[in-house]
Batch of 4 targets.
Target 1
Amino acid sequence: MRSEPPAYQTAQAPPKQHQVSRDDGSNHQHDESSKCQKKDPADDLICPITRELPWVPVNAADGRAYEEEAIKKYFSTQHAKSAPIRSLVTNEPMGETLIPAPHIKSLIATLIENDAIQGDAAQAWNKKAMLEKANEGLAMLKVAAGYCNGVDGFEWDRPNAYQWYQKSHGAGSVKGTARVGECLVKGIGVQISFTLGMMYLGQTAKAGSDLAAYLLGHAFAEGKYGMPVNEEKQFFGSRNAWGLVPTHT
């Protein structure tokens, strides 16, 4: 971030207008702006500091939306230099009041979903969404493991563990989905369902889950979880699958 806010820039004059003659001899105004491309809706939503769509937007005193972490860091930097707080848009003095703006985040999500915002801005936003979803899934997975094994301050509670594995699966965690499959084929905290459990295990094994590959190989090797013995499919998944031991017994 620049040490000093950008210099104030005055608004540009409106596009020049010309008289254009019609076939009937009358004149009408022709605005050169009509030749310009339609304004990108992302322009008014981009954070002036990060130059990206804000993931945690806040409205500042200058009326613009900023990424919360970025604008707070700017305030801290200015204080450290004993420099005044100025708008990074107008360069005018402004207060430090920040108002959470979840409606802006919802608007951005809707615009991206409907392809009204595309390109680099949309890609960067979607990446943040995927990372947050993955982090949520991993956190839920840790809670589930705590309940399942009675560790990390959690009481042993298999039904509750299964519910948290389900939440992790819903958040997009491949590991969470594999654990749901394991619970279903083993009856861990839920009624056994070989069909549904094997479906989840098959999906996650293809997605790279070593646990799922291990369980599938074990099922075909010994004819477990409703599967017939199949010597060809017992080596399903990665070559390392047979060296893994599932958490649940």
Note: The beta strands are 17-21, 27-31, 57-59, 65-67, 99-100.
Target 2
Amino acid sequence: MNKNIFNFLFALLILTVSGNFLNALNWDIYSIDKNIFVGNIIFPKNIKDLPQISLYRRGIKIKTENETSNKKIQFTLSEDKSYKKFYLLITKSITPDIDDNTVKCLKIDPKQAYKFYELTIYTNQELTINPINNLKEIKDVYSWNIQNMKLNSYGIIPDDTLIMIFNPDYIESIEPGTSLELPKIIIKKNILQLAGSEKKLSDETNELLLSCLDLNIIHTNPASEVKPEYKKKLIVAMAHPD
């Protein structure tokens, strides 16, 4: 009887371990062509409560996380590894151009305030010396080129633009990122003075959130990324009793 129980548990263990291994292997194959780029919106240290900010890209409302202790808002973008160029638009409002119940494009009034950037990541190879074994190695070095751009005369927004609904006058700069980090969006240190107070800043950003209700209708929430799984069959071999 003890031998039967041992055979059963051993077979179950082998099937579980092999199933987990196949799942991990399948997930690696699934994600091998994707990069997860992390984005950060950096606020000054004197901000007590971070505002809620709406981000959109490719018809999707981007999920954000407020890290109050670090004074930053963080988000992620999943993108093909071959993708090297991003667009970033910061403005207080955008308008969908709708024809026959179809959104043709998104645009802004060209006269309204905005900041528009082209963010391009470059990869260069450098020869370095490994400090451990003192051998020469070729290392990938990543750099970002950040260009301040203008939209066309009609105010049409490129399809793959990351849109940040926020007062562009509060933006200090865009700082270079890393191989898996988008350039940082730096908020001005005197934002509270520009807004009038933290309460006025909160009121302003809340009004922008309300103005985005129509945009939320035409933008979907990001689906949870689920690891694909192999279908497993449980086969148990029981030994005949002696």
Note: The CA atoms of residues 51 and 205 lie 7 Å apart.
Target 3
Amino acid sequence: MRQSKSWFTWVKKRPQKEVKENEPVTQRRGQKKHYTKNYFSRYLSYVKAYLKQPFPEFAHPQANNSFHGLTTILLISLFNTISLTAVANYFVSRYDWFANISILPNVSFTFTPWLFAIKTFFFLVISLWLLPVVIHCFKKIIYKEETDSAIWLSEFMGMNVFSLTLSFIGLLMALLAPLLFFVVILFLLIIQLVILNMAAVVSFTPYSNQRVIPLFYIILGAFFTNVLIEFILFSLIF
């Protein structure tokens, strides 16, 4: 005789099966949370190391992470994008008032903050990524240097970690009082640009004794190539 199915037993065992199936999911979530926490602490160590010694003779051990450079690029771009968008939106929204009290012409135009922010963000991300890529290509072609591009990006952006601090300060100023701190925000942006160029020059100094091509012309060629690509990029995005 066919034995009847015990529904009570099936219901009783069902939660145990679900818990067993959910165990890997819970474990993955725990691993992901643990990795995120560890990465945050490692990134802070990376930032602290390069703040103490921005241009080390040898790369800091914290730079041996392929994501630190990209994280720095994204953060600097994000902070500067918000700052520029806040300042631009403030002045554009009050352009008529400024035109009435100054020699500015009465011009009618439309300004979309979110579109400006998206374009600015992508432009800054590509621009900050572009210069180390150009330098990496020059080193590889001229000096035959074989370096992992992601690690090199972390090393180069480590020399620009101070710009991360400046961009965050500019962000706070732009959100608090864009008109009052307008000049200071522009000054901070200029300093970031100077630091970026300094990092580019310093990255070539270990090769000063190699007489393949005079170092001056190598640096000049790298800057000219970068500026040319930047100009094309700006015309395409904006």
Note: Confidence is low (pLDDT under 50) at residues 1-20.
Target 4
Amino acid sequence: MKQIGRIPSPQERAKPHWRRYVNDSLLALGGGVLVTSLIAAGHLYPRIPTISLVYLLVVVALASTRGLYAASLASLLAVLAFDYFLVPPLYTFVVSKFEDLLTLFVFLATAVITSQLASAQRRSAEEARGRERETRLLYEQAQELAALQERQRLARELHDSVSQALYGISLWAHTVREALESSEPEQAEAAIEDVLTLAEAGLAEMHALIFELRPESLETEGLVAALTKQVEALRARYKLTVEADLVDEPDLSLEKKEALYRIA
């Protein structure tokens, strides 16, 4: 049976290696350089005052794909690049106008909040995938456990019924041989009848166990027919009064029908 090992949490899986830090830093730097170059080449600022929002596309993309570190770094680099290359006076971090300072502050706050929200959504998606994987593993283990219990039950049935019938046949066969050796045909005939009775009972028991393992009627005739035959087998096998209230054939796959048959 498969053993389910400890599934690492999203926080543990998210612990970045130093190479991941380097890659995230390069992506954040590259995204900032690309957007700044496009804005500067097209002289879009201050002609379009809200053009700085284009940086948010890089921030959101990094937060969704790489994580909080890359998005936060991209936010900081975007503010610095926007101030240094686009906000007058150029090529300095000095901000001469209060409006420009307010724009930078609002942009930084928006970028940080956006990166945190996108990163949180990414973590939630990772946690959901982890729970889905764990649920799938637990389901597979439950199926294997059910199959093992079914095999153990069939083994007990074989030991309790069929093996006893075979043992009885062996004893009566010895009785037949002794009766024939002592020239007692009537006793031999009676013993043969007992052998036949035990053989028929053992054969019926074996057929019942095979039917329980995988009834052919379940695949050819459907779940209702298989359950009906199972009820008839229980009546004949255990001499019980069994009643079944069955409805129309359900529209299910063979695997689901077999699972329902096992439950019944």
Note: Residues 215-264 form one domain.
